[in-house]
Amino acid sequence: MSGYLFRLFSVACFLLFGAPLAPAAEANDPWPGLVQDIFNNRPMNDGSEVIGIEMPARAEDAAIVPVTLRTKLSPGDGRQVLSITLVIDQNPAPMAAKFQLGPDAKVSEISTRVRVNNYTDVHAVTELSDGKLYMIKTYVKASGGCSAPAAKNADEAKGRLGQMRYRQFAKAGEGPASGIREAQIMIGHPNNSGLQMDQVTHLYVPAFFVNELRLWQDDSLVLTMEGGISISEDPNIRFTYVSNGAKRFRAEAKDTEGHVFQREWKMDDSGT
């Protein structure tokens, strides 16, 4: 009889405590609400043939998780990619970045580093010139990235504030003024999330981050970025585009305290 009661008790516990777990997990999925808040409930289409997203399944450091976004439209496809929005569903501010692509730059790849605060789905949503949104997602295991202490102390971060470096990477056999180009912009900035604690005062450091970035080749727009607290310290954006033969590259960044940082390089000044 005792064995029967034990089994009965086990079944009752499963029904009371085990069965609701799966529905509860589904009910806590933030994505439907994010579609409403970020994209005004616009329909989402399968983006597997339009956009790719690459992130590690398990992050080594949740404060600097690499992410690469790649466009996948075939050469014969007449549509253009207008924008790519990166959403980290479980982060306190889920919209990590929105990239608007210059109409003539043919940007095909963007890489950066982000903070991931919890195990989460990460969505990339692309808007094409056909007026539709296309979505793809991946899953990342990481935690604590938004509250992780800054790698640099406050004085060091202040001394590097707004410093920008530009690098370009030529493919074999291609000169710097033509063809497909890879470039990288690095900005010295603490990009404080507002969730980090000062290790001396034990007070939270106010949010302070780069929220706008614009890049041009001569006067032709390459891309813009609207950034949030999920972009890692010292924002680093690497991208692939098609050169128009420009002689100079320009960058302008703004942060949440109203600072404006501007820099211009000659195309042969890579690495400075």
Automatic annotation (TrEMBL):
Family annotation (NCBIfam families): fuse_rel_SoxYZ
UniProt xrefs under Pfam families: SoxY (PF13501), SoxZ (PF08770)
Sulphur oxidation protein SoxZ domain segment(s): 178-265
Domain annotation Ig-like SoxY: ranges: 36-146
Secretion signal, residue range per the UniProt entry: 1-24
Keyword Signal: yes
Key words, A-Z: Signal
Domain of life, per lineage: Bacteria
Biological source species: Bradyrhizobium australiense
Name of the protein described by the UniProt record: Quinoprotein dehydrogenase-associated SoxYZ-like carrier
